[in-house]
Design brief:
With 268 residues, the protein is α/β, with parallel strands linked by helices. Helices cover 43% and strands 23% of the residues. The protein folds into two domains: 2-102 and 208-267, 3-Layer(aba) Sandwich (D-Maltodextrin-Binding Protein, domain 2); 110-203, 3-Layer(aba) Sandwich (D-Maltodextrin-Binding Protein, domain 2). It contains eleven helices and 13 strands. α4 packs across α11.
Length: 268
């Protein structure tokens, strides 16, 4: 009898521990190893503040993290703006808790780039050309570049070919090695390589990346606590700057902040 009771107790403890463990998902903007290095400090800080283990999960692609956030196997996740809208539309219990403030602004931009010595001068020149996108779930390397092409009279069918390279760094590589004539890129990587690429068009401001929570899976009170922890991080803390040196802090966010993205998604 004692052995049975002990076994039941151990099962209960294991179950409680499993439920207490929070999974923090991150979409793969770049290689998984790079993304792990950028987010492990923040995951450890969240764990220390919550008093529990936080498991960091870097996705193989954007959909893996977005699907996990939607179904609750991932309770909190750093996703793209379009991912936040998409998952909220699938499951209204998923909402942004905070958004990034970068270089003093809660916005960033998407760039349509070509190689520096390219004869291309505008996205309108891309008919019959090869275009590189990142992941289909990316805002600044898929959704917005695709929208820029369309507003310049270029549909996907007008292109000779389009590539889904999987990441921003792969887009840059494709443009530089000549396997693509142009591509869609996030602001930071475009500016970092300004000596190698030209900008065919720069988007209007896009609301910055959010960290979202599944309120049903995480619980409303715990979500508020996570939000308070993130907002409470000092400006330019090591946990924030490890993600990007240009990141300043996190500020509170809501799904209403991303309605411009919802509007673009509706048009496509």
């Amino acid at each position: 009898m004692k052995r049975i009771l002990l076994a039941l107790l151990l099962m209960f403890i294991t179950t409680v521990s499993a439920k207490a463990d929070m999974v923090f998902g991150v979409v793969p903007l770049e290689d998984k190893e790079v993304m792990t290095q950028r987010f492990e400090a923040l995951a450890q800080y969240l764990g220390s503040q919550l008093g529990e283990e936080v498991t960091l999960q870097i996705g193989n692609d954007y959909n893996e993290i977005e699907s996990g956030l939607s179904n609750g196997t991932i309770q909190v996740a750093y996703v793209g703006p379009s991912g936040a809208v998409k998952v909220n539309q699938e499951n209204p219990a998923v909402i942004p808790l905070v958004k990034v403030v970068k270089s003093g602004s809660p916005f960033y931009k998407s760039y349509v780039i070509a190689k520096k010595d390219s004869s291309l001068t505008s996205p309108a020149d891309l008919k019959g050309k090869i275009f590189a996108f990142g992941d289909k779930g990316s805002t600044s390397s898929y959704l917005v570049p695709k929208y820029i092409l369309e507003t310049n009279g270029v549909t996907l069918g007008d292109l000779k070919e389009y590539k889904l390279t999987g990441s921003h760094s792969n887009v840059l590589k494709a443009v530089l090695d000549g396997s693509a004539d142009a591509g869609g890129l996030k602001e930071s990587l475009a500016l970092k390589n300004e000596d190698k690429v030209k900008f065919l068009e720069i988007s209007k401001p896009i609301p910055n990346f959010p960290i979202c929570a599944n309120l049903k899976a995480l619980g409303k009170e715990k979500a508020k606590k996570v939000q308070a922890i993130l907002v409470g991080l000092p400006e330019k803390s090591k946990e924030v700057t490890a993600i990007s040196k240009k990141y300043d802090k996190f500020s509170k966010a809501s799904i209403a902040d991303y309605q411009i993205i919802a509007a673009i998604m509706k048009k496509q």
